[in-house]
Amino acid sequence: MADNAKAFFHAKTEAGKAPEASEPQARGHFSVASQENDAADRGLQTMFEFDPETDSLKWSDQDAAARILGVDAEGVAATREAFSACIKGAEDEARAAAFVGERPSYSCEYQLKRTDSEGHWVEERGGWIGSGASRRLISVIRSIENRKRREEQLSWLAVNDELTGHLNRTHLRKVLETSLAGMIAENRSGAYLLAGIDDVGAVNADFGFDAADKVIAEVGARLSSVLGPEDRIGRVAGTKFGIIISETDPDQLRQICVRLMNVVRESVIETKGGAVAASICLGAVTLPDQADSSNAAMTRAEAALDAAKRIGKSSWSAFTDKTDAVSMRRRNTHMSDVILTALNERRVRLAFQPIVSDLDETPKKFECLIRMRGEDGQNIPAPEFIPAAERLGLVHLLDRRVLELALNTLAVIPNIHLNVNISMETVKDFVWAEGYIALLRNHQDLARRITVELTETQVIDSIDASIEFVSEIKRLGCCFGIDDFGAGYTSFRNLKAMDIDILKIDGSFVTGVSSSRENQLFVRTLLDLARNFGMQTVAEWVDNEADAMLLKGLGVDFLQGFLIGKPETNPDWLPDGAPNEAPQRPDRRQS
Questions:
Q1: Distance of CA 426 to the CA centre of its chain
Q2: Which of 180, 209, 266, 409, by CA, is between 20 and 30 Å from 431?
Q3: For residue 293, how many other CB atoms are within 10 A of its CB?
Q4: To the nearest 10°, the Cα dihedral for 24, 29, 30, 32?
Q5: Is the dihedral of CA 322, 324, 325, 327 positive or negative?
Q6: 389-413 confidence digits (pLDDT tens)
Q7: What is the separation of C-alpha 59 from the centre of its chain, rounded to a whole number of angstroms?
Q8: Taking the CA of residue 141 as centre, how many other CA atoms within 13 Å lie in the half-sphere pointing to its CB?
């Protein structure tokens, strides 16, 4: 092989090493064999030189080529035709054009047909060098199976629950909306059921968390086994499953509930800790008669489930108006105790999600997202306690605690900037707003590294209170941002009056922006607006590189989303999490 080709290959090899770390695989979704192959192929790459006169390929590393192609060293393709036959599906157009001399260079990704797997993803980059009789096409091929599997995993987790493999809460809600629309359009009846596993806390205590996970997964599998082909199931909370029955009537509904309860308790569940006899309670809502939206269906099924649990284990209850009133009071009382106890016992934590200006940047800016652990050590989803806190008048306490934890973090970690969210209930309440501002005033040296965020829809609801609050915190050196911008209808006058520093573009316009002309047009409009007012912009929900590159090309200042990083309560730079107590500050009177 020519010396210049060898030098080209060496530079590519050093620059193109695959990262060692990888995301944990979703349980039950990827085989052990696939993971072992992935580990063996990680960082694997080689190069070939193509001679157009003889249509031959010369490989820089015959063994590496054999591993990539999944063949013996003697079976490595020696001609372009032989190698192209190893490609799964149609050959990339740019690659084909380059080989016949119609393009000077190319880059593509494709799958190879291998006997040891369904297909193996590789990236190929090549270009022509030399001239005349010595003209050669030099190409580098490297395995990207690890990256593709990560992308597949993230795509799978966006729809499914990791433990059970069923739909997650977010996607089940979408399916429920679609199902409701179909029922209304076709004038048919269905049902939404909420199944809650009885006494999982006791399983945790007696057998351990692994056994409890096994029970949850097995119950989900048993429920799924007796559903119809058009019915859907999803895990909507730690020990609860939502079930969409596509077509039924009140008489059939009882039979369905009994069948579901029976399939769960028909035999014990074997775990490493011992055999567990599981049972469920069910809350049922008929659709669309009792609920014509996913939110109403889920809320009323929760109320019916509460009523079933009051009857006893392995019971079911259908929703009624009386059920809803009793259940709401009961849930309010329970959630009030949960929130207050978590605050008192310092179980309210922060999860930090990075915000960057470039993909290769080390994050120095983070959004603080509230998290709460229950008494059993399990995380309580924010949608379960934030609306309740707002309804019960406890959100002021959560806002205050988030700010305290953020200030404690800034005190021990220099050179970072934190974004904190505040509710409009706190902003509108003079006493709580003043207390919030006073806490910032007492830490004015740290306040300069804080951005306070309000959602656009909240700002619209109470613009006068917002303007006054923003003015006060900016005097202390804080920045102010509007979250979910584009979801409301803030006027230009209000934007100017509030002296906003940052606009966070609503994630619904960011997801898939690279393939949506409408979203691109909307984002361009928002960016022009922000520039005219001298504001910086953040794009939320960035979950793939194509969207990220387009957004940066359009002029977005910062990126935030799962592509950049997921929220972490114990990130590498703060392994113990946000400090519960403020660090000792020097007595200024002695300085």
A1: 28
A2: 409
A3: 14
A4: 90
A5: positive
A6: 888 889 999 999 999 999 999 999 9
A7: 41
A8: 28
Residue 132 φ then ψ, to 5°: 60, -140
Sorting pLDDT into bands at 50, 70 and 90, what band is 499?
A: confident
**Could you tell me the CA-to-CA distances from 403 to 210, 385, 408, 418 in Å, in that order?**
35, 18, 9, 10
Q: Are 373 and 379 in contact (CB under 8 A)?
A: yes
Per-residue model confidence (pLDDT) at position 536 = 94
- DSSP string spanning 86-152? TBSSSPPHHHHHHHTTS-SEEEEEEEEP-TTSS-EEEEEEEEEES-GGG-EEEEEEEE-HHHHHHHH
Distances (CA, A) of 44 to 17, 63, 65, 96, 451: 8, 11, 9, 24, 44
The answer to whether the Cα torsion of 175, 178, 183, 184 is positive or negative is: positive
Contact 246, 237 (CB under 8 A): no
Please tell me what DSSP assigns to residue 1: -
Name the CA radius of gyration of the chain, rounded: 29
Residue 563 CB neighbours (<10 A): 18
Measured torsion, CA atoms of residues 87, 88, 92, 98, in degrees rounded to the nearest 10: 10
- Phi, psi of 353, deg, nearest 5: -110, 125
- The pair phi, psi for residue 137, each rounded to 5°, is -100, 120
Query: Measured between alpha carbons, how far is 370 from 340 in angstroms, rounded to an integer?
Result: 15
- Find out whether the peptide bond into 288 is cis, omega within 30 degrees of 0: yes
Which residues share a beta bridge with 319?
none
In contact, 195 and 314? CB cutoff 8 Å: no
3-state DSSP helix/strand/coil percent for the chain, to nearest 5? Answer: 45, 20, 30
Location of structure tokens 């799978």: 156
Q: Is the dihedral angle over the CA atoms 360, 363, 364, 369 positive or is it negative?
A: positive
Burial of 251 (0-12, 13-18, 19+ CB in 10 A): exposed
Question: Helix, strand, or coil here: 28?
Answer: coil
3-state secondary structure 145-164: HHHHHHHHHHHHHCCECCCC
pLDDT at 329: 61
Place of tokens 């109470």: 462
Taking CA atoms, 264 is separated from 161, 227, 270, in Å, by 20, 13, 13
More confident residue, 460 or 310: 310
Contact 210, 273 (CB under 8 A): yes
- For the stretch 189-216, pLDDT in tens is 999 999 999 888 777 777 777 888 889 9
**Cα separations (Å) of 55 from 84, 93, 101, 116, 281?**
12, 18, 12, 28, 69
Cα(258)–Cα(266) distance, rounded to whole angstroms? 12
- Residue whose entry in the numeric block shows the structure tokens 């567990």: 276
Distance from C-alpha of 445 to C-alpha of 476, rounded to nearest angstrom: 9
